[in-house]
Protein: Vitamin B12-dependent ribonucleotide reductase
Amino acid sequence: MTETSAGPRKQGRKGPGGLTIDRVFTTPGVHPYDEVTWDRRDVVQTNWKTGETIFEQRGVEFPTGWSMNATTIVTTKYFRGAVGTEQREHSLRQLIDRVVLSYVRAGTQHGYFATDADAEVFEHELTWMLLHQLFSFNSPVWFNVGTPSAQQVSACFILSVDDTMDSILNWYREEGMIFKGGSGAGLNLSRIRSSKELLSSGGTASGPISFMRGADASAGTIKSGGATRRAAKMVVLDVDHPDIEEFVETKAREEDKIRALRDAGFDMDLGGKDIVSVQYQNANNSVRVSDEFMQAVADGTEFGLRARTDGSVIGTVHAKGLFRKIAEAAWACADPGIQYDSTINDWHTSPESGRINASNPCSEYMHLDNSSCNLASLNLLKFLREDDTFDVERFVKAVELVITAMDISICFADFPTQAIGETTRAFRQLGIGYANLGALLMATGHGYDSAGGRALAAAITSLMTGTAYKRSAELAAVVGPYDGYAQNAEGHQRVMRKHAAANDDIRTLHVMDAEIHAAATTAWAEGNKLGARNGWRNAQASVLAPTGTIGFMMDCDTTGVEPDFSLVKFKKLVGGGSMQIVNQTIPRALAKLGYATETAEAIVEYIAEHGHVIDAPGLKPEHYEVFDCAMGERAISPMGHVRMMAAVQPFISGAISKTVNMPEETTVEDVEKLYFDAWSMGIKALAIYRDNCKVGQPLSDAKAKKAPAPSPEVPGPGRAVRKRLPRQRDSKTTSFTVGGADGYITAGSYPGDGLGEVFLKLGKQGSTLAGVMDAFSIAVSVALQYGVPLETYVQKFTNMRFEPAGMTDDPDVRMAQSMIDYIFRRLALDYLPFETRASLGIYTTAERQRQLETGSYEPIVAAEELDTEDDGQAPTLQTAPSSAPSAAPAEVHSSAELMDLFQGRAADAPLCLNCGIKMRPSGSCHVCEGCGSTSGCS
Structure:
């Protein structure tokens, strides 16, 4: 895409010309919808606890490459219209068209495109990227754009409150309206005078803590009035506020109350009927600390608390003592978090228009009071080529397209308050970000907590934000800079230079990150040059959001800046039931690290059984770090998370939504050190969560380590029962040739119930080989009849190498590494369902041909025949075998619950109010794998 200076003036034009949009992803004359294969699916969602059907829509249309999980989330969350009526959306085409065509119309109306042909190319390119899951807008876009509803596109809001009763009551009202719409908001209460100051009438002020009670009750009431997630809110107080100590201890005291009530027999679990009796449970609290305060902590000196009315010092605290109280409270109940005020405002592009005082509830959006930010996230794994190189050119073009679309949306967007609308239109804050960083690092053989992983993440983040601001400068030449730019030109340019200087400080370690870093350096240099001439269209360009629901929409393995959650995942089947599978990024990572197929197979099998890589056969200890995850035996250390945040923070306009989980044995001193180190490393905000620090979580005393093995007198599992084949049964005989040697497979089946016996004939009757094969056949047949799954044999015996080997006469298995390898591949093709074969990398010729034509191995079947789930991922390189999926235990309903089972203890996480299953962390929130609901972030 390039900037032009020609073309007729269009409505809304502030500058000459418009953008010329180049085709990168699409083909001239071919609509993106015509390049994919579509199928019909049924979406039925139930609450596993009650058995109640909570949603049902049949015959929805999606590309075959989309997983059933993504299908369910889009259908239930984003399709508009009453279910069961003709007005209800039923196809992904309708959803994408509703949004994209609204953007194209607005872009054309406001003069963004040089010609109508450029507008059409923009439409096709944006459609292609959404269709192929390269990126997604935040949830409010899918909820609202193109519908009769208000065209709200923002998910993040910052409010303000002054020291007047009118302002405080208006805060309640504005916050309530935002909660009613399913969004969240944050604000700073530091303008409200403290309880140590006098009112004009002569009485003593109530202080901000008392007013927090009313706001908390309002949020809780709106939640209980029918919302499917809690009201998300952030409350911030400056560290020099005279009521800061009471603020710090507020939620810790309430946690003590919860424990006392629980011990007295009251129901204080999350969602319990008595939990509403405690206060301050509907907000995240954060303390705003300045460099002055942090230096006083380092020096062990006193720190002044200032009156809100005149700024005079009305008391002092020992800085280190107050910092200790902050750490103690966070250790006890995970609140408060910390926001580093001086760092935040040092990176502020619009300082002349006001300070940055607060953030949205998840702490990634930080800008002026009474403002909002709309978000979009890129799926990083989609830019990793099959040869494990990063497609820099396509990534750059994707960022340019997405930023252009996001800016267009502000032209037609509606906002919850007039003040927010005025500020957002004047500063046009955007928040491009990404998901799947953790999966990308693992796939490329980088440990999340490694110098190489941080260098790659920093380079990608720098390229993303540098390209976004370069596009913003190009847009400024076409439709003008943001209204507040002239007043803030010096400050904005200063921050752009800071970003570019931080980019120069990146130290690359490998060819991949060096190539990305070189492109980022070019983007910053060219963008800053354009910006100095044109200004910038946007005061802010990037944030790193949780990407919970939209991450599932894009079929991402990891959200936001997070590492992978676990090495073993839970997968739900459409027709009922579930299975557990090994993370599909692992085989690719093992191939990247140079492991042979047989070794990789053994490693994957070990992970499937144990849930971790410690002592996996053949895996080098120095490679363990590549497979470290958020949970498990080798969970990434708290400082590992902080180091990754510090690596990418200099290249983010806003901040990073992330809660650093700490083990239960963490000390208060550990929390103190983490909060202090985060400040010294230049992070803008940080929150921690110590395992099991809260009572109001679904723990059920399961946090104890795995129960001891049962004593000898406890009976074990029942004896296996042999299920014999009927006297007459169907059988199939297959002749084959492998490397010039002939053989026969005779397979007998249960009536409509799968394989029950195998007879193999190799060599002459009476020979040693024939006798061995007869014995082997009997052993396999008896085991099949005792219930050993066929996929177990396929997993064990495929890829076994010995002579004869080589070419076969079977069109579905052209090469075999041995006769045994061929036999069990053939049996898999004849008797295993598609999903199981796909996880093993075994496909028919027709399926491989279909993958070349459509990008998916999936069979094309009618909706009524869909009884298993589409895998939904783009085909993974079959350089190493995947583990065969196995049935998930009946008590498991999510990956979080599966990891609880592996670890023998329950992690602290809320239950989904829709599905009843345990959610998993997503930034500073939690997200449900089943339905995409979040605990507060869109």
Observations:
- Residues 1-15, 224-229, 697-716, 861-884 have pLDDT under 50 and may be disordered.
- The radius of gyration is 30 Å.
- Residues 21 and 117 are 9 Å apart (CA to CA).
- Residues 731-887 form one domain.
